Amino acid sequence: MARVCVFDVNETLLDMGALDPHFERVFGDASARPAWFDRFLLLWLTETVTGSYQPFGQIAGLALRMLAGERGVELSDDDQQEIVGGIAELPPHPEVEEGLSALRDAGFRLATLTNSTAEVGEKQIDNSGLREYFEQTLSADTAGHLKPAPEPYRMAAEVLGVEIGEIRLVAAHGWDIVGAMRTGCAAAFVARPGKSLFPTAPPPDVVGADMLEVVDGIIAAEGGR
Asked: Which of 52, 70, 100, 131 is the 20 to 30 A CA-CA neighbour of 111?
């Protein structure tokens, strides 16, 4: 039984679409935001695989510079700070609070596990208004490795005082789902628009189009109180 639900933050709980106006202003196209996140992912996975480590926010800035160079865009320090700093002020997806409330009422323990630094992760949860739902806000930075490396999931289990198999990772990213499951966690996939599971691994037992569908699936799989 996985009675502890640990949530990814960016895109899973919080809506990164709130950054689109910044990308439209700087790059002339809001679609630059998912293109930036793709490069962001490429950089941090490369760092992880090659045994290097840089904080999430630093990689975010480097990915912006990378995209700007590819597109011939002049990116000022202020532009970069506005976008990277905006990560700490993202709003929750509209159905998230209802889903968290239902899980809490069903007796689940709730925590977050983000690749953002602990400082940014704390600001994100405070600014989103979701603080009351989580007993812990955890950062992969504490483990010195970014997800989907196994260390952050193991760190979460240790901090929460449970076995790795008692954790269910809830995420909107296929790479996070694979990382968690291969470390021994259960998982639940939030299939937000444009997101898909990785075909290199079996799917988790809970998949839903939004947080409410996922929460219904978790409660059905695990039972209530």
From this structure: 52
Mean pLDDT computed over 207-216: 98
Q: By CB neighbour count within 10 A (0-12 exposed, 13-18 middle, 19+ buried), where does 50 fall?
A: exposed
Q: At CA 44, angle to CA 43 and CA 47, rounded to 5? A: 90
Ordered by start, the domain boundaries in the chain are 4-15+90-222, 16-88
**Phi and psi, residue 83, nearest 5°:** -75, -50
Q: Which amino acid is at 120?
A: V
Quick one: DSSP state of residue 142?
G
Query: What does the pLDDT read at residue 122?
Result: 97
Nearest CA among 159, 149, 178 for reference residue 109: 159
Under CATH, which architecture does the 4-15+90-222 domain have? 3-Layer(aba) Sandwich (3.40)
Kindly tell me if the per-residue pLDDT of 205 is higher than 80: yes
What pTM did the predictor assign?
0.94
CATH number of 16-88: 1.10.150.240
Average pLDDT rounded to a whole number, residues 28-53: 91
Contact 187, 169 (CB under 8 A): yes
